[in-house]
């Protein structure tokens, strides 16, 4: 009798003292429906924001390409203090490291006296005829923009799948934790009754010991399920862009009705969110190849310029065939001569053909590689659609059977409890039937959740999340 009382008190103390709450209901707890979670994820998830920034970058690239072919106008002004000695003969200014000197050859000796010179010029240069390069550059930039936009849509689609799946798993683990919490209460009630009966001599002392074992086991199962639920909650909070916050799932009656097999329109795979980016990537590769091929074409430009120059060196030659040099800045900077120029130029580098040919062939092979990847993804999606249909059918059949299992286990538990109270059955049979009932309820929760996840798999395989979202109960 003393042993029975000790077991009862110790078990009650452990369960009562260390019983955690399922998702602490405090002011910081966030309650989300699935659609609210999807909206939050779309707004907050960093990778989606990254894709949005890439679209903005690609948009600016398109504008930059258009602007690069506009007439280029520039102004420059110079004020130099230098000597002006020259010799006959040629030189080549490699990357501008050699400084040119303008003026005639002096017939007298070289002079180290410097003078101020000035230059002001305004020049307009326009690539009037590009032989298709402008259009090719614009098409390449626009195809990259379209690809970036579709990558965003794909990322939203993929992330919504991840969020929905994490939401369903969090919902399932929460339900299982609540179920195990009820199982703790049930086993505790049995322990209370058996301990009282053992203390009064109506039942054997072993009954209270067995009941204590079952109550402790139920407690451990509850703590394990609660830990899993909290970990899944952390995963979900990270996916919706609210890491570290506690989220309480709004079940939205997921377990009150089963989803049905959706009717899928016979839409081609080309519109699938996982295939569209690959198709646009092929377009990018093809447009880039055209862009490379046209780099070998010439460029026809129109140009015009006006400029003025000043110098501290005299225009007229002295009687001794020298030039007067005035080092004053006021003599050298004012313009003394003005000029203008209008004309056209054509530039063509025919030897670039050899480089362009290999780059073009390389880009063509890149396009072929992307096309083969496109075919692979298309085949994988076809297989996924067939597998998703099979998975849904199997999950639906299982979900239809588990309620029958729960009802039978519930009836068996009631009968076993009555037989135990009448002294016909032992505590061992009662605990076994209790475990059977708890497992059947768990199987039911898992089967319904698996059915919803199978529906999600089907929607993902067909590239249409509305197949899933339209069946969410209000």
General description of the model:
- The chain is an alpha+beta fold and 474 residues long.
- The chain has a single domain (2-70, 130-293, 350-469), classed as Outer membrane efflux proteins (OEP), CATH 1.20.1600.
- It has ten helices and eight strands.
- The strands form three sheets. Strands 2-3-5-8 form a four-stranded antiparallel beta sheet.
- The longest helix is centred in the last third of the chain and has 70 residues, at 352-421.
- The two termini are 55 Å apart.
- The model is unreliable at 1-20 and 23-27 (pLDDT under 50).
Summarize this, please?
By secondary structure, the protein is α+β, with helices and mostly antiparallel strands.
The CATH architecture term is Up-down Bundle
**Residues in helix, %:** 55-70%
Major sheet, described briefly?
4 strands, antiparallel
For this structure, the CATH topology is Outer membrane efflux proteins (OEP)
Number of domains: 1
The CATH superfamily title: Outer membrane efflux proteins (OEP)
- Main sheet: which strands, in order across? 2-3-5-8
- Nearest-integer average pLDDT: 87
Q: Report the radius of gyration as a whole number of Å.
A: 42 Å
What coarse outline follows from CA principal-axis ratios? elongated
Q: Helical segment tally? A: 10
End-to-end Cα distance, whole Å, is: 55 Å
Tell me the number of strands.
Answer: 8
Subcellular location: Cell outer membrane
Family: Belongs to the outer membrane factor (OMF) (TC 1.B.17) family.
GO molecular function: efflux transmembrane transporter activity; porin activity
Keywords: Cell outer membrane, Membrane, Transmembrane, Transmembrane beta strand, Transport
């Amino acid at each position: 009798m003393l042993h029975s009382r000790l077991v009862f008190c110790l078990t009650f103390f452990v369960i009562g003292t260390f019983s955690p709450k399922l998702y602490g209901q405090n002011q910081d707890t966030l309650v989300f429906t699935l659609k609210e979670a999807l909206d939050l994820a779309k707004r907050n998830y960093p990778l989606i924001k990254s894709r949005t920034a890439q679209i903005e970058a690609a948009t600016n690239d398109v504008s930059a390409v258009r602007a690069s072919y506009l007439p280029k106008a520039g102004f420059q002004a110079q004020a130099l203090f230098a000597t002006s000695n020259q010799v006959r003969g040629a030189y080549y200014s490699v990357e501008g490291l050699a400084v040119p000197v303008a003026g005639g050859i002096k017939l007298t000796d070289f002079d180290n006296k410097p003078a101020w010179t000035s230059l002001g010029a305004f020049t307009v240069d326009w690539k009037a005829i590009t032989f298709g390069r402008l259009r090719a550059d614009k098409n390449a930039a626009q195809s990259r923009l379209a690809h970036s936009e579709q990558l965003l849509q794909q990322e939203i689609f993929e992330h919504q799948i991840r969020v929905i799946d994490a939401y369903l798993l969090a919902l399932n683990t929460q339900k299982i934790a609540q179920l195990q919490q009820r199982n703790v209460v049930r086993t505790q009630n049995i322990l209370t009754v058996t301990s009282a009966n053992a203390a009064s001599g109506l039942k054997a002392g072993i009954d209270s010991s067995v009941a204590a074992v079952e109550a402790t086991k139920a407690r451990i199962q509850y703590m394990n399920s609660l830990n899993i639920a909290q970990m899944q909650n952390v995963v979900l909070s990270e996916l919706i862009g609210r890491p570290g916050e506690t989220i309480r799932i709004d079940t939205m009656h997921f377990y009150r009705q089963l989803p049905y097999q959706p009717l899928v329109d016979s839409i081609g795979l080309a519109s699938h969110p996982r295939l569209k980016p690959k198709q646009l990537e092929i377009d990018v590769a093809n447009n880039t190849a055209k862009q490379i091929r046209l780099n070998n074409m010439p460029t026809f430009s129109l140009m015009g310029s006006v400029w003025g120059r000043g110098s501290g060196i005299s225009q007229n030659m002295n009687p001794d065939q020298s030039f007067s040099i005035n080092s004053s800045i006021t003599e050298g900077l004012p313009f003394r001569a003005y000029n203008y120029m209008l004309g056209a130029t054509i530039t063509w580098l025919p030897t670039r053909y050899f480089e362009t040919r290999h780059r073009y062939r390389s880009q063509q092979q890149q396009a072929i590689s992307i096309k083969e990847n496109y075919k692979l993804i298309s085949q994988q999606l076809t297989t996924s659609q067939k597998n998703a249909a099979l998975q849904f059918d199997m999950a639906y059949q299982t979900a239809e059977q588990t309620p029958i299992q729960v009802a039978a286990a519930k009836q068996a538990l009631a009968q076993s409890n009555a037989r135990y109270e009448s002294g016909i059955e032992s505590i061992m049979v009662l605990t076994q039937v209790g475990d059977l009932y708890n497992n059947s309820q768990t199987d039911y929760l898992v089967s319904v959740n698996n059915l919803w996840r199978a529906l999600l798999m089907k929607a993902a395989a067909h590239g249409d999340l509305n197949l899933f979202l339209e069946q969410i109960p209000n």
